[in-house]
Every structure is written in structure tokens, then in C-alpha cells.
Amino acid sequence: MSSTELPSVPPTSVLPKSVPVRVAEGERLRSVGLPGVTLTVRSRPPAREGLQPALFVHGLGGSSQNWSALMAMLDGDVASEAVDLPGFGDSPPPDDGNYSITGHARAVIRYLEASGRGPVHLFGNSLGGAVTTRVAAVRPDLVRTLTLVSPALPELRVQRTAVPTGLLGVPGVAALFSRFTREWTAEQRVRGVLALCYGDPGRVSEEAFRYAVEELERRLRLPYFWDAMTRSARGILNAYTLGGQHGLWRQAERVLAPTLLIYGGRDQLVGFRMAQRAARAFRDCRLLTLPEAGHVAMMEYPETVATAVRELLADAADTADAADTTNSTGAAGAAGTAATRS
């Protein structure tokens, strides 16, 4: 695994073309070379030694920056890193062009294996929620806990507001949409995304809006922008139709890690009604519903989400300590019995 640190830019500065992305105070970016893929990783220095590692995975069209607010609030609880999935943020496309859920999950697994940070507290939003569900199901050794914010798990009755996003995965639609919207400004596009993803777009500060516009302008210049979007959207659609052991709901049932599910009442992309189905699917889970939140609760209500995450971590630690105590007691008892018999 090769790693190269990328230059950071203060949040209030203007982005020159030579600098890929900005980072919040206390963050750093580095580029990590792995077999078949190169990932950009956003991290925060641990507040103290001994903190358990956490890894955050963003949704369709997002980036690791979507987790910055929550990562900052968890500084004293975990050692945080967030990845840009292949083709998103500042990560280049994968060598094999595979943007399926399995392809993205494979990239996350390769990073965890190469970095040696696992098992981690794993977080996923939307597309990232589907990806991390698959990771937790197929590689339980890499996951301590799982936190899913509006995970993109299959729905039989998709909301009408989510249909346009799903259609991006249909061949030819993205090119048609690109031609139809070529006169749209970056500001118009960002306002549309915020209206779709936030329960209350008014919660976005003017500074954050300006940054989002700058970032979208940068990413629209990338030759693979629409390809990454459309192929990843197609990957979600394909995962929705996949049955058997590889189906996402079946894999959710296989997740062993303690799981926190977070759903927003104003989510226009993932149906709020799916919260109860998800709560039944994951065997060891707790559910947090936020009636005023949209699709990105960790960005709208980071304080509330951080509180729920801390409770998950504390309970998971207590359970692990109890298991260690039971194992130690059992081992001591077995040793005593063996000594008596001898």
C-alpha cells in the first residue's frame, strides 16, 4: 500500500485548480494506492492514544467531506478516517470500471486489509450504507460496530422523489439529462441537490453552500464524473434486483456487529417506512428516527447522531468486556477442574 499526503486548503480560501479539495480544520488528506484502485482518505488525528479506529463511507454523488462534522464531534471517541469511493471526491476511477456495490465494497475491504486498522467502527450513508452492509456481512472480522444513515437497501415501492436518481442508472438517461441541463449553473444544481437531500435546506450555511458550488464545479470538469454517477446508480439498481444469498436484505440478516440505524422522516430518497423493516432485518440493532431530517442526518443533525453513536460504542464495549470476563472465568474454572483431576 502506497500513501501520498495531499495538500490541504483552509475552509475559507478559494480553490485553485491545482488543489483537489479542501479540508476542515484538523483534517488531512492522503492518496492510498491499492491493487486496482487508488483511494483518497480523509482523517483526523486521534485525540488520544488507544482510540479504536472508525471508517466512514459516503453516498452516491458525495465524498468523504460529508462526514467532516460528525468526525469532528467523535474526536474523543474514535480515530476517524473517511474514504472517497472510486470515482468520487478526489479518488480516480477504479482500474476495472466496476462501480457495483460489490466493487465499492471490495475497495473498502482492500483498504481495511492493507491499512491493518480493522476491526473498525464502520459508518455508511445511502450508497455507502449498502456498501458497508455488504462489508459487514462478508467480512465480520473487519467490523466492530455498524452505523447506517439512510442505507440504500432494496425497496419494492420506491418514492416518486427518488425515481429521477434511480433513472440515472438506466443506459442513455444520464447523457440525455446532461444535455437537458447543460444550461444549469452550479448554483442551480446545488440548490436542487440540497432540496432533495436535506429535510430543511435552510440549515446549510452560506459558506457551506459556496463551498458546495465550488466543489461541484470542480467535479463537473472531471471527464469521468457522469460515468461514476451513472454506473454507481446502476450498481444500486442491480443490487435491488439481486436475490438469494447475495441480496442485500439477506446479507443484512447475516451482520453480526451491533448496528445503529438512522432514518429521516423527510428523506426523499430512502423511504422512512423502511426503518422498521431494517430494524427487523439486523439481528443486533437499535433504531434512531429523526422526523425533521432528510437523507443526510449526519450533516443536518451531527450532534444528535454523535450522541447515538457514543451510546452504541459504550454498549458494545460493555458487551465485549462482559464476554471477556465470562471467557476468563470459564477458562479459570476449566483450569481449576483440570488441576483437581490431576
Automatic annotation (TrEMBL):
Name the UniProt key words of this record, in alphabetical order. Hydrolase
Keyword Hydrolase among UniProt keywords: yes
Q: Name one GO biological process term.
A: acylglycerol catabolic process
Which organism does this sequence originate in? Streptomyces lasalocidi (Streptomyces lasaliensis)
Instruction: Identify the residues that the record assigns to the AB hydrolase-1 domain, covering every copy.
Output: 55-307
In residue numbers, the region (Disordered) covers 323-342
Where does the source fall among the domains of life? Bacteria
Write down the SUPFAM superfamilies for this protein, in alphabetical order: alpha/beta-Hydrolases
Report the InterPro entries cross-referenced here: AB_hydrolase_1 (IPR000073), AB_hydrolase_fold (IPR029058), AB_hydrolase_sf (IPR050266)
Which lineage is the organism of this entry classified under, starting from the top rank?
A: Bacteria, Bacillati, Actinomycetota, Actinomycetes, Kitasatosporales
**What's the protein name?**
Alpha/beta hydrolase
Q: Name one GO molecular function term.
A: monoacylglycerol lipase activity
Per the record, its GO cellular-component terms are: membrane
